[in-house]
Write a structure and sequence with these properties.
Chain B: Its main location: membrane. Chain B: One of its GO terms (molecular function) is heme binding. The complex is a heterodimer of chains A (674) and B (380). In chain A, 41% of the residues lie in helices and 28% in strands. Chain A is built from 16 helices and 26 strands. In chain A, β25 and β26 (642-649) form a beta hairpin. Chain B has 3 domains: 13-63; 66-180, no CATH class; 246-380, no CATH class. Helix content of chain B is 75%, strand content 0%. Classes of the chains: A alpha+beta (674), B mainly alpha (380). The structure holds protoporphyrin IX containing FE. Protoporphyrin IX containing FE (HEM) sits between chains A (19-21, 24, 83, 86-87, 90, 94, 164-165, 168, 171-172, 175, 623, 626-627, 650) and B (333, 336-337, 340-341).
Chain lengths: 674, 380
Amino acid sequence: MKKPSRHASFSYSLYELLSSMRFAIGLLTIIAIASVIGTVLKQNEPYPNYAFEFGQFWFVAFDWLGLYDVYHSAWFLTILAFLVISTSLCILRNGPGFIKDMKAFREKATDSSLAAMQHSEEFEAANASPEQLQGYLAAKGFRLRQHRRDDGTLVLAAKKGAANKLGYFFAHIAMVVICLGGLLDGNLPLKLGELFGRVVPETRDLPQSQIPEQSRLSTRNLSFRGNVTVAENKSADVVFINSGNGYLVQELPFIVTLKKFHVDYYSNGMPKLFASDIVVTDKATGKETPATVKVNHPLIVDGVAIYQASFGDGGSPLNFKAWNLASPEMAPAKIEGVSLSSQPLRANGKAYQLEFGEFRQFNIENMERSKAEGAKSLTERMHDAREVKRDKNLKNVGPSITFKLRDEQGQAREYHHYMSPIEQDGASYLIAGMRKTVAEPFQYLRLPLDDDLKIDTFMRLRAALKNPALYDEIARRSTAKAMQGSAISPAMRQQFEESVKWILARFGEGGFSALEQFLDQRVPADKRQAVAQTYIKILQGAVVDVMAVANERAGAKPLTQDGRHYRFLLDSLVAASSLNDYGVPVFLQLDGFTQVQASGLQMTRSPGKTLVYLGSLMLVIGIVLMFYIREVRLWIRLGNGRVRLAMTSNRHNRDLDEDFRRHRDAIQQLVRGA
Amino acid sequence: MELAYSFDERPLWQRLNLADWLFAALLVVAAGVTYYRYGAYMDVYEQGILAGSTVGLIALGWFWKAWRLFLPLAGAIALLAIQLYQGDLARGQSAFWLRFVLSSQSAIMWMCTLFFLATAVYWMGLLTRSALLGRMGSGLTWSAAVLGFAGMLTRWYESYLIGSDIGHIPVSNLYEVFVLFCLITALMYLYYEAKFAARQMGAFVLLVISAAVGFILWYTFDRQAHEIQPLIPALQSWWMKIHVPANFVGYGSFSIAAMLGIAQLLVRYGWLKDKLPSAEMLDEVMYKAIAVGFLFFTIATILGAMWAADAWGGYWSWDPKETWALIVWLNYAAWLHVRLVKGWRGTPLAWWAVIGVFVTSFAFLGVNMFLSGLHSYGTL
Ligand code: HEM
């Protein structure tokens, strides 16, 4: 690149710098590095997450650097703008030269420059005919121009592949076009509005209608991308745009109503289809457009594209049986609620806030409990490797609901309850999870179900376990049984009865951990194991009688005495013990629901898209031209009985050597043969 | 791969011989039968892809003559496998030929074995300067590619045997694209090998293929990743059929370039100098590989953007995968600039090509393993 002979003023050196290759490469490098940051640091998370992760100091520092939204930060956009400027200047700078070059044949090339070319050769040719040579070159696809010098020698200047230079224009203009399209959709006006405080993101969680004007964008807004969640049979006429630590409300020119949301599953339980049946009603004309949007099949209305983005619960009415854990003998009360909403709840004289989370109708779980992969033998692995299909034991374990119970101090525990019986190792349970903080995993209780797949029997047993009035009767029966089986001598009768009552009382109060606590405090370490064994044995014997007494009192059918039911009783002990750590005095058993789904729709208007696609097309054309069209120039100088053949190309490679040899051989033959 | 400038200036149709026409006729017939039998199940884009790929495959055969034999052979093997299945997937474990050779998993395992063998043979050929071993290396690589390709076609069919709603083209998960990577890299290498008559390069290129094969084996035996899974909704798109293969032409080329970069560096630092081709030649093949790769990677990224516009609602979301594709692209754009504009050659560019493949592998694998984003389909 030769320097024009203008003297170097400041603005010229600036132009020089901006249009230079090294500046461009520098920019590309910075963009690459900035992009890496954006992929390593998760973008656009809620701000508290960042503050929690980095600590206050770094949180503020990173925020100041715009690292939570790198690609929309002012500095990143500035670099992009510089890239546009740099590339444009590069085109301006190289352009005229390249255009001249594309037109020129360089027929005035001097002998010495021809001789200096890398591919150049001179040979005798007594009777070379210009016409014949022209014919040859034309046949090889060259365009040519001739020039007769003053000394009478004739120069045939030929070339082909000028489109290569065209490729430069295509590819580089393409970059400018793509970046402009991107900047347009990056919504520069909005960014400027935010910068100057005309637009202020809302950070509070307000109902849509109360969001102030300064956080709302009118339908005239050129480009946006936002999300909205619509429940079935509800409508939306705005979308929400994330912006920094808040959000903006974008008004839409239409109303979207969700009629129905569909999820389909493959036979193996993987999701197969997410689709929303929607109706779009134009605000101005009232025209209705019904449509179904699916993943990969958006709907485009008024230049706004509507996409299926996510789905979830839309607030489903639910029915519960509320078991009072503190007064276990009471029958369960009926409670109604709606998922994703909250309501007050009084339990055992205390006031709670019941905050429902998401209701899910399907929960697909992998029930496979096969050998751990590591334990497989080589033959098994070889066998597995041959099969492309393996039946996974995926199962729908039925509806579930999450909720929090918040006490008056604001402390909350979170619960995850399933509705349907879940079979594990041949017995059925009701599964309920609890955790104290969001960071913990749920701890799951398994409440054993009776022959009718209800928890009533378990609850009855639990009530009896906690009812001291029954202990005498239970202890009497247990002791009688023990004596019958000669497990104890008559002399120990009294003492045994007392033990049973004492163990029941302890267990009824605090479950296994109460017994353990006692052992730790009162029994020497070396005896603990043995005593514990005895306690457990007594308890396991007594529980049969607890059940029998409880059933008799309730007028219920006695439990069949077999292994399965004995297991039910043992499971009940475990469950009753665990319920002591449940945290709240009420157990909400999900009993019925009416599912209402919601669909997350993303809506975009991106007028820059056309520019970006146009630029992309130009880019591909440009690259193909630059790489795969070789610009070749060839000169034949005729005169004084000699011929000089010279050839250049903008790309040197071994094909060029070969081509030169072939042209030379062919031309030698022509000029000799004639 | 100079499209426009070839010494033979006869128009294309005069340069074609009988075999070219037979090949074209075969493909047209195959496409016709496909359309006749399955056209009703295809949407208009898929019909377009069928027509486009028929033309593309014919063009590839005319441009690269070896393809005219490769494609029908792989196709015939796959058809044989399909015939043997008789519409029953279970026969894959009972019919002898399926069980040991032709079912997709058996064919792919054979591909793996043959690639390992080829690597060893190429290295022996390189070290002993034996032309015969070099030829054997090529033969093994060709066989591996034929079986691998046939295996992929068979797998496509098997996926429909599992369930008509499950069937899909096998380019949808990491296992399948790794096989695709091996195939594309091997085929592109075989093209350069023939064009530059330099089998010594095979020792290097096959190393990267062997590494991929190692991954495939681990993924199969340890993770059971070879099982055919149905497509999640985000992947149910005809874009996938063109976006993924275009990407892998890019990845394959960049890997070839990196391995040739290593070979070139060895020569320049004086190792294996008497056994390898000249540094200049390696440099040229490396450049050509990057040029092809850059073109396809550009196309793939653009296709990805267009797909994203359909699936996620925006052509560019700065999702980690997209961003890393951009980084890879910028890297090779800079590489090409310093070579073509600044005139760099040799050692620095060879080093750069080697480093480039690490950037590329991060975009390919690292992003999936370490970063989360839309490409891990977190939202749906
Ligand atoms: C957005 C950033 C840019 C991209 C993606 C880009 C891309 C490309 C590509 C793909 C090539 C083809 C290489 C080849 O000829 O084989 C090329 C060539 C070239 N680029 Fe850039 N470029 C960019 C910016 C620039 C800038 C700012 C300059 C100005 C200094 C520049 C100057 C050139 C020149 C002079 C050529 C060679 C043209 C020829 O000789 O035919 N590029 N560019």
